[in-house]
Each structure stands twice: as C-alpha cells, then as structure tokens.
Request: fold
Amino acid sequence: MQLGAVLVCDAGPLLLRHGGIDVERLRTYTGMRIAAVSRARERRAELAFGALEAFVPDARFELEYHVRHASLPRPGDDRALKRLAARIFSEPLDPARPPWQLWVVEGVDAGRFALVAVCDAALVGPGSTGDLVQALLAREPGPAVATPGWLARAGAALQRRAVAALSPVRLAGRAMAGALDLAESALGGGDAFGPGSGGALRRVDWLELDAADVDAVRTRLGGSERDVALAALSGGLRHLFERRGAEARVLRALTPICVGGRSAAPRVRLPTAIADARARLVVLRGASERAGTPDTGAEPPLRALASLAAAAADGRRAELVAAALPALAGEPEVAGAPVRAVVPVLPPLPAQALGVTVTRLGARVFVGLAADASRVPELSALADGTASAFDELRRIVAEARVRPAARRVAKPRRRRATRSSEAEAQ
Reply:
C-alpha cells in the first residue's frame, strides 16, 4: 500500500536568483536526513523461495532517482498541484528499489514550492525506524540507524507474520466481520459509489479549515475535531449524491484510531441522508463516544498513517476510510524553508472508494481526500461540498452567539412599552 503527504513551503533560503528552487540543496539535505530512516536505502527481497519477504541493502542506491524534480505549467496553482499529486500517487513504486520517492515541485505560485512524498507503508511499518516526512521536518538530523543483519530481520518478519495470521482474536474478528458483511449484502446493501475499474488511477484533493472555527464548533456544538470533519464530509457526500441525481445514502466509514496504545478501526455510519448540519454532528458525536477517545500522541505522520491504515485494512466492509492524525507541533521547516501546509494522503484501500485524512498545522486544519478515479471522478465537487457543509456549522455557531444578546436587548424594551401603556390607561 502506497501512502504519503503533500507539503507546501515558502521558498525562503531555497529561492534562486532566477526564481527557481535550489533542488540540489534539497537533494543533499534529503540524503543527510534519510540516515534516520532504516529502510530508506533498502529494497525488498524474497526469501525462502518467496514464502518470506525482507529488506536488504540496495547496492545500487541512487539518491537522484528517489529525489525528483518537476515544474507546474504557468501559471501554477493548487489545482495544478493536485493534478500532479494524483499522477504521482497513481504510479506504482519500483519494487526493485527502496520504496519511496520525493518530488520537488516548482511553480506552485510566486515564492512557494511543494514536496510530494510517496512511500510504501512498509517503509514506516513494523520493524522499521524513522519516518520520511518526520526526517525532513526535524530541526536536527537524526542519528544514523544501525540495522541488524538480514537473517535477524527475516526471522523477526516471519515471527510478526505468524503472530498476525494465527491470532485467535483476529481470526474470530475476521470471521464475524465476514458473516455480518454477508448479512448486509443479503439485505440489499449495494455499492453507493458504483462499480470501479479496480485500476490504480487516483484523484487527490484537499481543503483548509480555520482551526479557530473548528474549535468554536467543537466548543459550542460538542464533539472532537474528527467528529466535526466527518460531519462536514457527510454534508459533502450528500452534495455529491445530489449532484449525481441520486438518493443520499448512509455510508459506512472505517475510522481507525489508537486507543490504549493499540490501533482499531471502528465502523461509523456517516449520516449523509440527514439534511440538517447540526443533526449530522450530533449523530457522529454519539458514535465517537461509543468508540472511545483516541490517544493524542506525537507519532510521526506517515508512521501514524501506516498503523491506522493497517487497522482499517483488517476491519469490516466500508465505502471509505477516514483517519485523524496527531497535530504537527511547532513551526516545521525543510532546509530552512517554512512549511505552510501538510496534507497526509491515504489512497483508498482495495475495498474502498475514498481515503480521508485530518491533521492540524498551526492555525489550519487540513482535510485530505484521495479517491479511486473510476468511482469518484468528481472529487473536487466533494471537496467543495465539504467546505460548504463546514460553513453551515460555522453559521450555526455564529447565530447562536448573536441571538442571546438580541433577546436581552429586546425584552426590557417590551417591558418599558407595557408600563407606559398602563400609565396612559390610568
């Protein structure tokens, strides 16, 4: 499974005289930082006649192959960046090389550039150390990682695979999930997004929300940041179905969370059939309370995304996956260039049509969307509908703030008018 992130940065010290970006400096910077990522210079290898997979050093590792350069057509903007990111995430990584790429994208607009990081989940999965995005954002380069020999790593991989495959709890959970899915199918639950081609073509989009507005909605109407994002997404999906001329349906979303140090993927029904924005949030808030409060930690973004995606891959049937990641602390930068946006990208799992991420950076909350292009080709319409649904929640909060003051002013005026009328009558 490939996942990654899109980072938008101010050029800062990387801006060249002719207006371009110092790509060579970024390549050198990346080469130093990946020393903290154990598998960044390793490739997959099959052992025991293909029965076991392990990572071994790549003798022909080339940094230039992994750190690539692209430019958007003028005039560059976010729309062009999203199209390029979709193409990058649609291309499979070379299995004969270390499973990651970092694209330096010029021409986003004046004074900005982007980094599109894509990697296999195994790069940050069990048995690995470090995180590609975290390594780039770290203030100081991490220490070089001393990795054990391939035999020790192969043994550890075999042990993890055996434990995962033979766990009675996991086997029982899969059997129960399968039975429930069959029951739902028998009751007539079809695919809300329609059949897809099963290809790798993706759509990528995202939207920015003001963190102060998100906090105001949470404080006034209740729920977590994830609940607010899911309520807005539910409104966006409702808008998408209306645009298609179809009846809005309740959709199933796997919402992977970490509780008590362990990842789980409770399934939540998104209330897309409910027209009222406040009612949608109330429904999701109740579902979140039943699932448990997620742990708030500082786990690196791609590592957190990989662990949550793994939990979702083991979950029950659903149309989409929505993962909330820990907020990024401080004011991150890459080679001295300030980072203004970080959008983790979770391409849809094989059984899903849509992958959604929610993360916070400073005063902004980013909602990332990645879809199977054959099933959700109009992803930009979903992003616009989600933004509109969030605006509905903001308006509800704004009206709730104004109305009490208006009532306090109006009531004394009516009472004075009543006393005056009584005096005239006497």
Q: What stands out?
A: The longest strand covers residues 100-109. Residues 155-189, 404-426 have pLDDT under 50 and may be disordered.
